[in-house]
Amino acid sequence: MPVTEKRYPEWVQAQRTRGTTVKKKGDTYYLYKRTSRRVPGKKYPQPVDTYIGIITPEGVIKSEKKKISLGGIEVKEYGFSQAVWQLCPEGWKKPLGDDWEEVLSVILRKWSPETYLSKERKIKMEQDFHYQFSSQAASLSRRIYKEHGVELQNLQILKSIYLLYFEKERVVSKISAEQEELLAKTGVEFSVC
């Protein structure tokens, strides 16, 4: 039985070069780079198609999607730490003076060891201060509840919101509907530069 090759219009055929393949869905033609790879348990190499773009009579409209290398990615906890940072009451900060950011960073590292703050700033060790961190943490927790009506245990669901560090970019991971609702209730907003 002879193998029949699919025939496409000339303007589509003109875009088919060696190492590419065309797929038609509806009335649209798509161009893919075709390679193959060995798969354990298979007798022959299996085809691997990588999307290039849409074929039009004027040429190929290449995909605008950005490719990101995942080799050097770092993932840090972001949601919980950022929420506590933003909800931190002035009444708790004031007695600490200029030390409040460093004290809060130490507390957040204890509450969330993978906090993004450990990447963003050098966090001193607890021994470098003269504060009683357990009482500072308890005071912070009470004041957040008093001012914002939310307990720290409720903020725990935000620990699964991560900050992903790529080579030149930072991106916040997906936020669930439940997390979104809590963020709206507390007025916490995330912005990543």
Q: What is the topology?
A:
Layout: H1 10-13, E1 20-25, E2 28-37, E3 46-56, E4 59-62, E5 74-77, H2 79-87, H3 90-96, H4 100-111, H5 117-120, H6 133-148, H7 152-155, E6 162-165, E7 170-172, H8 177-186
Helix pairs in contact: 4-6
Description:
It is a single chain. The chain has helices spanning 10-13, 79-87, 90-96, 100-111, 117-120, 133-148, 152-155, 177-186; strands spanning 20-25, 28-37, 46-56, 59-62, 74-77, 162-165, 170-172. The chain has eight helices and seven strands, in the order H-E-E-E-E-E-H-H-H-H-H-H-E-E-H. With 193 residues, it is an alpha+beta fold. It starts with 9 loop residues before the first helix and ends in a 7-residue tail after the last helix. The chain has two domains: 10-62, no CATH class; 74-186, no CATH class. A four-stranded antiparallel beta sheet has the order 1-2-3-4, with no helix packed on it. The chain has a three-stranded antiparallel beta sheet with strand order 5-6-7. The radius of gyration is 27 Å and the shape is elongated.
